[in-house]
Amino acid sequence: xxxxxxxxxxxxxxxxxxxxxxxxxxxxxxxxxxxxxxxxxxxxxxxxxxxxxxxxxxxxxxxxxxxxxxxxxxxxxxxxxxxxxxxxxxxxxxxxxxxxxxxxxxxxxxxxxxxxxxxxxxxxxxxxxxxxxxxxxxxxxxxxxxxxxxxxxxxxxxxxxxxxxxxxxxxxxxxxxxxxxxxxxxxxxxxxxxxxxxxxxxxxxxxxxxxxxxxxxxxxxxxxxxxxxxxxxxxxxxxxxxxxxxxxxxxxxxxxxxxxxxxxxxxxxxxxxxxxxxxxxxxxxxxxxxxxxxxxxxxxxxxxxxxxxxxxxxxxxxxxxxxxxxxxxxxxxxxxxxxxxxxxxxxxxxxxxxxxxxxxxxxxxxxxxxxxxxxxxxxxxxxxxxxxxxxxxxxxxxxxxxxxxxxxxxxxxxxxxxxxxxxxxxxxxxxxxxxxxxxxxxxxxxxxxxxxxxxxxxxxxxxxxxxxxxxxxxxxxxxxxxxxxxxxxxx
Length: 491
Prior knowledge:
Number of helices: 2
Number of strands: 33
Oligomer: single chain
Radius of gyration: 25 Å
Shape: globular
């Protein structure tokens, strides 16, 4: 079946989905999905718009009485040199801040002082009627929350631009992020029972072996591996009832990260260890060590942690946080397919069913070698705890590529941008199926496209094929009517 570009005409709209044991791709209904952006688990609010200053000023400028305003090491930095310091953000679209309740700013100031927030709306530019202020303590990282949910100049208004006035003369400041949020959520101590966020120091962590350039810098623990067994060790603790460990990690190159721990019954050993793979080369990745069922963790008193950031020499690495989780950390308490600690990382509420915009939940089971999805779903292991769970952007490269003998399950929701008729395609190696619901629940899902040996498609489509979509008629769904704004469960 051949199709040229003239086939893509209104009102018929198209979405292509590749679901496979080796790859996944989603092009969603002609619309662009918004990715949540957060490089720190500190961002726990419902982030709608964020400037994180990872590589640039992100449009913030127009500085007055601030010298050296520039993005450096993931922060926007400057020094106040006058009595009326301020800097303004970029001009945004009329809908960017719609339904937001306020602004969160994570900031470090060398001395305690005020942080003022101004904003523009349809009533006018920056003015005292559109101003709030909070006092920021000095010498520590602080998340300042400006709750504007009852401010008449914010609620229901078209917010076009923000302005920040940081501190008094001589203040040196660094801003990790500025975010407009749709809800505020305070930290829940039952989830984060032992938190090393490295806000002001190394929090007692040391580098006893094969790590050079070990230091604290701007809220991060940093180092460079210098041998085949590099590791860092945390302070002595005494905790019982934790479910595991999560670490926000970044390195120059991909690498395995291994966690060891000691208990009141024994020291560091292979029997008290767990591994995670860092694959997001050069970017932040949340590493999760789910130890709820580990015989040397569950029910034990944990006395110390040790982390080995890879085995390759000369690999620069950073930890933004290393945290032991409480009872609900690895559970999906609200039933939205996202475990608790991942909700914290992505800025959604662990206690409220929500959606990660632009991401699907990917589960993987290792050592399953079926070619057919019917054989797969009949296997008991497919209903056991998955070996890996990730939340990935559908347009990203598959996190499971070039791994043999495994099965994946991807789930999430799509929202129709306009009312109309849609078609979906599926592509992949071996057996793959695409299911779509008639509503937002999984209970009305039905198969709309597939490749499987028992229907005559053999081993499916080779990953190197130049024609991924049109080898078999079963790859294409029938015409499906979707309603604008309605959410549909996809699997």
